[in-house]
Write a structure and sequence with these properties.
This protein is an alpha+beta fold. About 50% of the residues lie in helices and about 10% in strands. The protein has 12 helices and 5 strands. The protein has a 5-stranded antiparallel beta sheet. The chain is globular, with a radius of gyration of 22 Å. It starts with 8 loop residues before the first helix and ends in a 15-residue tail after the last helix. About 5% of the residues have low confidence.
């Protein structure tokens, strides 16, 4: 880099992160400032902000970088059209959750536990990742909310994917101390089912299963339809878009729009969260059930369907 002064700015960010790991913070910060100009992308701002939060250093700069990233992503979400949502739009939701997690973790490091709770809770509601869960558990513990900490820790352990044994170990250690606080008291999932289920996988499922008061004449005993659900802090009402499935369920749009979804917003910046969802209705049930898909699944493009032809010979 010294021999080539016109190197891309992202290399300064990479060098800064390397210095930070040594650690040599005083050499890292000038590289970050040079690499993160006014036009820095949200992912670069977020990477540096999270690295500084993990190192628990220069938190004021980390807060600035993260706030810039979150603002840019929030503005981008408002351009998403629920009617024409593509896999990249659901990837944006995951990116938003990761950036809310970063900003929440910075606030935690700075001792602003109430501010941390707002961002981490919103991030968890989008993507129930183990790292986000771990950060939220630590925040709830600082706030003395032991039952909520136990419930989230239990679910985060169930959402853990291989590849980050350190996070799994920390969550397991946390669970050892929190297990006495694990109860069957509802209150986190947004519906009437148990949010503190002893089975973390069941509790995770409860977060994404909502009862919908909708009745109509069904053409079969059991029917389903796919929808896009849009929730925004800028609009008083939600939005539901029918995608495919049983045509008789198209009439559920009003009921789905009126539903209270388990999604909070940590600040007043106009933001839209979209989720794919499956509505299931049965002649044997009073209500229908809406299952919110994981953003990781919705972000995967639908495979191209190649028609199968048979050889006439």
């Amino acid at each position: 880099m010294d021999a080539h002064p016109d190197v891309p700015e992202h290399l300064h960010v990479a060098l800064g992160k390397a210095y930070l790991r040594i650690p040599d913070v005083e050499k890292a910060m000038p590289e970050f400032k040079q690499g993160l100009g006014d036009g820095a992308e949200p992912n670069e701002l977020n990477d540096v902000a999270y690295a500084l939060a993990e190192a628990n250093t220069h938190l004021s700069e980390a807060l600035d970088y993260s706030s810039r990233a979150v603002k840019a992503l929030s503005e981008e979400t408002m351009d998403v059209s629920p009617e024409d949502a593509e896999p990249s739009d659901y990837s944006l939701m995951l990116q938003l959750a990761a950036n809310w997690d970063t900003l929440g973790w910075i606030k935690f490091r700075a001792g602003d536990f109430l501010g941390a709770e707002r961002y981490l809770q919103a991030a968890w509601q989008i993507a129930q990742g183990a790292v986000i869960g771990e950060h939220l558990v630590e925040t709830y513990e600082k706030l003395g909310k032991k039952e909520k900490a136990a419930a989230i820790c239990n679910m985060a352990l169930s959402s853990y994917l291989p590849g980050d044994p350190a996070t799994h170990e920390r969550l397991s250690n946390e669970m050892t101390g929190l297990r006495p606080f694990l109860t069957n008291t509802p209150g986190l999932s947004g519906n009437s089912r148990s949010a503190h289920s002893v089975d973390g996988g069941v509790a995770l499922s409860d977060m994404r299963n909502l009862q919908v008061p909708f009745r109509t004449k069904l053409k079969a005993n059991f029917v389903t339809a796919n929808f896009v659900i849009s929730v925004s802090n800028e609009h008083k009402s939600n939005e539901a878009v029918f995608l495919s499935g049983a045509e008789e369920l198209r009439g559920a749009i009003a009921a789905l729009s009126a539903l209270k979804y388990p999604q909070s917003f940590p600040d007043d910046t106009p933001t839209r969260v979209i989720r794919k969802a499956i509505l299931s209705c049965s002649i044997y049930s009073k209500n229908c059930t809406l299952v919110l898909m994981l953003p990781t699944d919705a972000a995967v493009p639908v495979p191209l369907q190649v028609p199968v032809t048979t050889n006439p010979d």
